[in-house]
Amino acid sequence: GQQLNQSPQSMFIQEGEDVSMNCTSSSIFNTWLWYKQDPGEGPVLLIALYKAGELTSNGRLTAQFGITRKDSFLNISASIPSDVGIYFCAGTIQGGSEKLVFGKGTKLTVNP
Amino acid sequence: ETGVTQTPRHLVMGMTNKKSLKCEQHLGHNAMYWYKQSAKKPLELMFVYNFKEQTENNSVPSRFSPECPNSSHLFLHLHTLQPEDSALYLCASSPRAGGKETQYFGPGTRLLVL
């Protein structure tokens, strides 16, 4: 069944705006990862988080591993047209196998 | 070639056909993965190979048959597929299998089963 709830499903924003998306679960996670997928391509890792409370940046992207270990968010500041794509959260569940479980993705559209 | 490559990029096949998907990684990794990506569904892990040994089969129907002849190559053999098997099939690799290992994805094979 669905183990990760990712929201929003889609976002339409103007260039220059900030963006925030998140993933939540009823399970405790050991790792949180954020990927971006461009059309016709495979997902590319943006940020990896391994400790509760960890806040990590990658350029204009910032992600945090929630204190409860059941959630994570990704922020994009000052969006640009090339930020368009689908963003996925993923993680490994505590006590489970070490396979990654993925959210359904957030489709981001940036209007110039 | 660098990274993870997949061929073919697009494939159309009938339900009685037999075809194979190929994945090759040039990263020196020891773990390789097959995922299925369907519209409006999360990525689904299908198989994991670690040092050429299959370590995970996520209840995948037997009409999908993986093969890992060495740590750099991974195949997915397809036979008697169903229309609902149409999806993007993604290959990934990582240094070793494990949740803390970063997985690098290929561009995928877009499969249509008629």
In short:
The complex is a heterodimer of chains A (112) and B (114). Chain A has 112 residues and is an all-beta fold.
What this model shows, in words?
The complex is a heterodimer of chains A (112) and B (114). Chain A is mainly β and 112 residues long. Helices cover 0% and strands 54% of the residues of chain A. Chain A has no helices and eleven strands. In chain A, strands 2, 4, 5, 9, 10 and 11 form a six-stranded mixed sheet that branches. In chain A, strand 7 (61-65) and strand 8 (71-76) form a beta hairpin. The radius of gyration of chain A is 13 Å and the shape is globular. The mean pLDDT of chain A is 93. With 114 residues, chain B is mainly β. Chain B has no helices and eleven strands. Chain B has strands at residues 4-7, 10-13, 18-25, 31-37, 44-50, 53-57, 64-70, 73-79, 87-94, 104-105, 109-113. In chain B, strands 2, 4, 5, 6, 9, 10 and 11 form a seven-stranded mixed sheet that branches. The model of chain B has no long low-confidence stretch (mean pLDDT 93). Chains A and B meet through strand 4, strand 5, strand 9 and strand 10 of A and strand 9 and strand 10 of B.
